[in-house]
Amino acid sequence: MKKVRIFIRKYISEESGLVTVEWIGITAVVALAGIIISAFIMVSARDLGDAVADNMDAASANIAPPPPP
Questions:
Q1: 9-55 pLDDT per residue, tens
Q2: Pick from 10, 11, 16, 57: CA 20 to 30 A from residue 2's CA?
Q3: Count of the separate structural domains present in the chain
Q4: Domain containing 48: what range?
Q5: What span, in angstroms and rounded, lies between the C-alpha atoms of 37 and 40?
Q6: What SS3 class is residue 18?
Q7: What is the distance between the alpha carbons of residues 49 and 25, in angstroms, rounded to a whole number?
Q8: pTM for this structure?
């Protein structure tokens, strides 16, 4: 039982693996934030492209109406 207590105390006081765990957590958060931000940018860019296309269609209809058949 004494060996188990010594092992647990050493395990709790050991800090060499803590940096690795923190690094993994930080990189996971940064990667997730990048994915979320990319999704917002894609949606906004698509909506902006649709709005530009609609405005160009409306402008071209006012400039040159289609010729009669």
A1: 887 777 666 777 788 889 999 999 999 999 999 999 999 999 999 99
A2: 16
A3: 1
A4: 22-58
A5: 5
A6: helix
A7: 36
A8: 0.54
